[in-house]
Structure formats: C-alpha cells, structure tokens
Amino acid sequence: MKNKINKGVLLGLLVGWVGVFTTAAATPLHHISAETCKSCHKEIYKQWKQSMHANSSAMKDPIHATFYKKVVGDPTKEGVKHKASGKYPVCLQCHAPNAAKDKTTKLDAMAAYSEGVNCIVCHTLKKYKGIQKPDGKLQLGLKAYEWSKDAAQGPGRHSNVGLQKLAAAGDVFGGGAMEDDSKPNPHLGEPVTMDGKEIPSIPMESNPKLMKTSDACMGCHDQRNNPHGVPLCQTGNEYMLSDSRVNCLSCHMPINDGLADHTMGGGHNNSILQRSVVFDVSTKKVDNKVLTTVYLKNPQPHSLPTGAPFRNIYMKLAAYDAEGNKIWENAEGHPGKKDPQAYFVYALADEKGNPAMPPTAKQLGKDTRLKPHEERTLVYEIPAKGVKLVRGELYYNLLWPVLNEKFKHLPEDLKAPQLIAAAESSI
After folding, report:
1. What's the whole-number average pLDDT of the chain?
2. How confident is the model at residue 20 (pLDDT cuts 50, 70, 90)?
3. What is the pLDDT of residues 31-77, one digit of tens each?
C-alpha cells in the first residue's frame, strides 16, 4: 500500500516552515547596525561616528574599557559578571544597550553591540520611566525606559509616515525622514533593496514627547552610583536642581542646516568645551602689587565639569615682563596643591576621608566645581615689579592627575590637558 500524505498535515508543515523562514529573515531592530542607517542618512551617520555615543562601549572607549576590565572583565567574553555584585554588568545598560537587551557580554558578537549607543538605541526608546523604581532603587540606562521592539521612534515631522503610506499605495519610494528622497524608504514598513543592499523594514512612529526632550538623555545621564551607593555621575540631579527650562538637546544637539547635530558634543569635544565657560582676567595696580581678579561663570544648567567624577578643570595664572618672560605664576605645574581655589573637581573619598577611586569610594570628597549658572571670582596679589601682562589659562582634563599617571597605556590625546579658555590683562 502506498503511503498517503494527509493534505492538512502537509499544509501545516509548509506553514510552519514559512513561519520559521519568515522569523529568521526578520531582523530584530536592536540588531540593526548604524551602517544600515548610513545608506540614507549619510550626514547624520558621519556626525554620529565622531560622537562618544559611537565610541561608548568597552570595545572603543579606552577610558571606559580600563574601568570595565577592572570591575567586570573581558568585553569579548560571554557570561562575565560584575565582580562586586556577581550580577549582569550594569555598565552595559548605558554603554552597550543593544547587548544589554540580549543579556550578552560578548560585545564583538555583532556590530550593533560594539557600536555602543547606535542609531537604534536612541530611536527605539519609547517612554521614560525615571531612574528610580518604586522601592527607591536605581534602574539605569535601558532599564529606565520602555522600548519599542517593532518601530523606530522619531522626533516629529519626518516620522509621521501614516499619510505617506496611504498615498504611496505600494510605491516604496517616498523619502519620509530620508536625506535622499529618491531612494526607497524602509520606514514605510517593508524591506527594500538599495544600492544592491538589502535593508530590513524599520517602521517609524512619531514620539516627540521623548525624542525632543531631556527624557531621551536622563536614563544614562541622570545619576550613577557605585556599589557602595556613592553618586558618581549625576548630571541629571544637577540639571533638576538648576530648575532650568532649557533641555539637553538645545546645547548638545543644536539644529544646523536642518539637521540635529548628532556629534552630541561633550567633554571630549573641545569646541563645546570652549563654549562652556565665561572666563576673564582684570588687573589693577595698587601700590607695589597687581591686584588681579579672575572671573568665571558657568552658563550651563549643570555643574562644570560634569559627568564622570574624574573630569576636572584647572586654572593657570602667570605674569610676564616686557620681553614676555614669565616672572610669576600661581603654581608650578598642576595647581591642585599649591593653589586649590584654581582646581575645579568632584572628589571621592574612602571611609577615612582619603582620596579614593570611583569603584571603591565610600563617601563624597570636596566638590569645588562651578555649580549651575554660578559666577565665581578668584583674587590674586601679584608683586608688581616688572609686570606688563597677566594671562590666565583654563584647562580641561578627562582624568585626575593620579589617573593620568596610573593609566600609562592610554593614548596621550586622552591624557593631555585641553586649553578651553584664555584671558589677558595688560598693566
């Protein structure tokens, strides 16, 4: 007797296989690399590539990698745990959120992981829940958000594509949010082929309540505690206390030629550092002294410097004679010890009050930074003999001096102080 195949069973098998192939072909949004977005958003991609978002993971940021390897382990290994807590590394919730979504620690497994905060990370944030859970504990980075698994989130005009989809009537060209509207648009809900490259479907939703407010930033930039509960990064707290109505995007993503600037400049961007402070020097000769006043103002709604606690600013003040020779200075080398008022830093301490590293600190040390919108003057009496000019220079460092000395493996450009302001006064 010949074997008979039940048509219902065969149909079921076919449907099942189609489902398997369809599922396999559908790329999860958080696995989409920024290289895919580059196909249409070339200028935005170019800007993002220069940003610290693109270099946020332990695969690409040497400073973060140094701490990550110390407190967690190898970013190319699967299954590593935070050494102090024995849990999945909380660092990845901010520094590699796509990997955190998959609970993986092998950041070189795919581009979307090693790219750190790539396009999809920010553009799938759907709703900000805040960084505090009902029990008062912190939920940081990705955990502070509801995120969308099936649609990218956009800021407004270009991300409203519903009418466009109706009008397109099957035509995949349309250009909503595209820099080049002559190309097919994957945001209309179907995969497309572009320049010989297969682009997965990336449906788009408008979400201005998140994408055009500080809510898009606060999950990672509000506050971060170490295992002992000592606040390290707390830019959001500073911002909230300033009662400012200017949101983060106004400074860090200004509109230029119709596009929001995706370089998102901060402490690694000298241009934005130069705009971050008002700095001036004035002099007045009184008897045999040059009374010198240094004026500083922080125009921002957060402390200066802010972010990682090891960022710091110091001021060098010097007097010169008629030939340009330096004849007086506030400190030889770094002024931290000889002229502490010229050192702006957020210090951490151990239980005895001695300086401590971020992972081991038990309490806050002295905070000499400029508070939001603070104006501060420093006064110096300089011996007047031979003085023709007084010059002040303000320098920004990504690391404390002790870390610069300790982390000898870091590139020199990360350790070198950056001149962010200078001012002179002639006598």
Report:
1. 89
2. very low
3. 999 999 999 899 999 999 999 999 999 999 999 999 999 999 999 99
Please give the C-alpha separations between residue 116 and each of 77, 92, 122, 136, 349, in angstroms, as whole numbers. 16, 9, 11, 28, 30
Question: Nearest 5°: phi and psi at 263?
Answer: -75, -25
What pairing do the DSSP bridges indicate for beta strands 312-320 and 326-329?
antiparallel
**Percentage with pLDDT > 90 across the chain:** 77
Residue 380 C-beta-side C-alpha neighbours within 13 Å: 27
Residue 320 has pLDDT above 80, yes or no: yes
Residue 30 contacts residue 124 (beta carbons within 8 Å): yes
Coil vs helix vs strand at 238: helix
Q: What is the DSSP string of 20-51?
A: HHHHHHS--GGG--HHHHHTT-HHHHHHHHTS
Sign of CA dihedral 150, 107, 213, 181: negative
Report how far apart, in Å, the C-alpha atoms of 38 and of each of 48, 155, 179, 231, 254 are. 10, 18, 10, 37, 20
C-beta of residue 419 within 8 angstroms of C-beta of residue 274: no
Phi, psi of 260 (to 5 degrees): -70, 135
- Reply yes or no on whether the pLDDT at 8 is more than 90: no
Most distant CA atoms of the chain, gap in Å: 121
Q: Please give the Cα distance from 155 to 159 (Å, whole number).
A: 7
Whose tokens are 């079921």? That residue is 12
Q: For the segment 363-384, what is each residue's pLDDT rounded down to a tens digit? A: 999 999 999 999 999 999 999 9
Phi, psi of 313 (to 5 degrees): -130, 140
Domains and CATH numbers, the chain: 29-153+209-260 (no CATH), 156-206 (no CATH), 270-426 (2.70.50)
Q: Does the structure show a pLDDT above 60 at 176? A: no
CA angle 271, 274, 280 (to 5 degrees): 160
Q: What is the DSSP string of 65-110?
A: HHHHHHHT--TTSTT---TTT-SS-TTHHHHSHHHHHTT---TTSS
Categorise residue 319: left if φ over 0, alpha if ψ from -120 to 50, beta otherwise: beta
Phi and psi angles of residue 6, each rounded to the nearest 5 degrees, phi first:
-65, 125
Determine which of 39-48, 108-117, 221-230 has the lowest per-residue pLDDT on average.
221-230
56 CB neighbour count, 10 Å cutoff: 22
What 3-state DSSP class applies to 186?
Answer: helix
